Amino acid sequence: MRNFFEYNWQVRDEWFDWCKQLPNDELLKDRTGGVGSILYTLFHIIDVEYSWVRGIQSKEDVAFEFTDYNTVEMVKSISDRFRNEVAEFLNKNLDELNEKVISVPWDEDKYTVEEILHHIIAHEIHHIGQLSVWARELELNPVSANFIGRKFRPINS
Fold it and tell me: What CATH number labels 2-137?
């Protein structure tokens, strides 16, 4: 499972680099489908990942507003900052936690840690697909979503 987090982080960083070719107003432009804009989609991915991982750890959710992070550099900075905390959590022995049932304040259902981790991975892959569609609408090549051929390093805390 750790490799899929690493994969998502690599692809996310490549999208941040990809974004640098566009002016900020194009990144903030509301688009059809998805959650809104290119930049907000990246912000949303980070927010969901961080919130669920904090929920697994029974930590309070940290609310942060997109209007405070509305440039590529700012969204990338929270991605890097929160990634360190997520990586630290992933370095623990997750096998012991997989069947633990979790309840979070924003959802009335309960889920196992394994379900939540799979959800986080699938959620990001889903939104990366949306970014790819928008890239093609802009007549630009999207970031490669290939898993094969990527090199993964151990997740460092």
Answer: 1.20.120.450
Q: Which of 151, 89, 82 is closest to 117 using CA atoms?
A: 89
b vs e for 81-106, b when ≥16 Cβ sit within 10 Å of the residue's Cβ? ebbebbbebbeeebeebeeeebebee
CA angle 59, 67, 57 (to 5 degrees): 10
Chain-centre distance of CA 98, in angstroms?
20
Residue 156: its pLDDT value, please?
Answer: 53
- pLDDT tens sequence across 9-66: 999 999 999 999 999 999 999 999 889 999 999 999 999 999 999 999 999 998 889 9
Q: Where are the domains of the chain?
A: 2-137
Indicate the pTM of the whole model: 0.92
